[in-house]
Amino acid sequence: MFRVNIIVMENVLRFEHPEYLYWLVIIPVLVIVYILFRIGQRKRFERFANLEMRDNLVPAYSTRRANFKFIVFLLTIACSILALANLQSGSKMEEVKREGIDLYIAVDVSNSMNAEDIVPSRLERSKQAINKLISDMRGDRIGVIVFADKAFVQLPITTDYSAAKMFLSTINTKLVASQGTAIAEAINLALKSFPDEAHSRAIVIISDGEDHENDAAVKAAQEAAKQGVHIYTIGMGLAEGAPIPEYNRYGQQTGYRKDNNGYTIITRLDEQMLQKIAAAGNGIYVRASNSNVGLEKIYEDINKLEKSEIEAKVFTDYEDQFQWFVAAAIILLLIEIVVSSGKRKWETKFNIFGKRNENIA
User: Fold this and answer.
1) Do 142 and 193 fall into the same domain?
2) Which of 74, 198, 206, 221 could form a disulfide with 280 if both were Cys (CB 3.0 to 4.6 A apart)?
3) Summary count for the chain: helices (H), strands (E)
4) Whether 154 contacts 146, CB under 8 Å
């Protein structure tokens, strides 16, 4: 199913955790604090004695040595932050050509999907099943459409399964303001949204089937079948139906939806409509239950379709380089510890820091 070809070799640098680089702002802050400290230290000495007498009064004092220690200290902090950000280098680029199916999942987000005859609710149980399906996908591309009175593409066709799960988590019954169940519009939108190069295509409709468009959805499924697109349907809900909960702005249930006469509305699964749509689209219908939504069964049937090459994507292998910054930080820290603030007699033989100009604080 997978063919891998190495297409280019080059160096690519990136930070795995770039958010840690913001901590580098502490370095200019420390520089300002250090300068103010040195200025204050100089003024305090001048109140005690003339600055030119410092060599005689404090022979072990060295301004250059103190500045050197501070610079080493700043470099240690910088290397530590860079180590945390983890610089990575990429040395190999690969082109991976995949074979699979292009799949759009159309999710009903009308208020009736809040009914709790399928626990925790029809919509939440649907999202759980889709999430599990995404985790099991290998190579197939997936897109998500939401629909009520209107249909919208929530996620275009992609192999970015992490993004798919993220978009899936945002689905709720407030996404489409006007109510209804526009299954035909969802099918037509999916047909338009498939990539031009797509060959093996399928649409899965998850709904309670309360469609008031007569045979529009069946006709849309027939048109999809003519284009080689298979339509599968999943019925969410139980035959006896359930009331539709209503919630306040804080997510707390306030009661159940009522009709104009004050009677509680009971939403029931319309299996017959969903079965007709699946039959017209050369697919299968599955009725969900509290134990199994049926999406896995449908996906098994979809996997029997002929797969086509659907993607060419570039990947990069990265190697961690943080260890170099850790080593540099340790060496700098040792230097900072070894170098004392004052002069030592044995160091005068080597004159490490050269002749001092102590008139500069």
Assistant:
1) yes
2) 221
3) 10, 14
4) yes
Q: How many CA atoms lie within 13 A of 276 on its CB side?
A: 15
Closest residue by Cα to residue 319 from 7, 8, 11 = 11
Question: Do the domain assignments include residue 276?
Answer: yes
Phi-psi sector, 209: left (phi>0), alpha (psi -120 to 50), beta? left
In a domain, 360, yes or no: no
Q: How far is CA 194 from CA 144, 190, 202, 312, in A?
A: 11, 6, 10, 16
- Is the residue at 269 inside a domain? yes
What CA–CA distance (Å, rounded) separates 227 from 201?
9
**DSSP assigned state of 258:** B
Tell me whether strands 308-320 and 253-256 are parallel, antiparallel or unpaired.
unpaired
For residue 244, the enclosing domain spans 102-306
- Note if the pTM is more than 0.85: no
Q: Which amino acid is at 194?
A: F
H-type alpha helices, the chain:
26-48, 54-57, 63-85, 122-136, 161-169, 183-193, 216-226, 271-280, 295-302, 322-338
- Taking the C-alpha atoms of residue 108 and residue 234, their distance in angstroms, rounded to an integer, is 11
Answer for the pair 91, 317: CB distance below 8 angstroms, yes or no: yes
Do 267 and 213 share a structural domain?
yes
User: For residues 154 and 167, what is the distance between their CA atoms, to the nearest angstrom?
Assistant: 7
115 shares a domain with 57: no
Rounded mean pLDDT of 220-249? Answer: 93
- 79 within 8 A of 23, measured Cβ to Cβ: no
The verdict on residue 284 lying in a domain is: yes
> For residue 314, which amino acid is it?
V
Provide the number of structural domains found in the chain.
Answer: 2
Q: pLDDT tens, 67-99?
A: 888 899 999 999 999 999 988 876 555 566 667
CATH number at residue 215: 3.40.50.410
Which of 138, 145, 226, 160 has its CA nearest to residue 193? 145
User: Looking at per-residue confidence, does 360 or 327 come out higher?
Assistant: 327
CA distances from 225 to 81, 187, 230, 288 (A): 58, 11, 6, 24
Tell me the two tokens of residue 30: 């420390």
Rg (CA), the chain: 34
Q: 3-state DSSP: the chain helix, strand, coil percent, rounded to 5?
A: 40, 25, 35
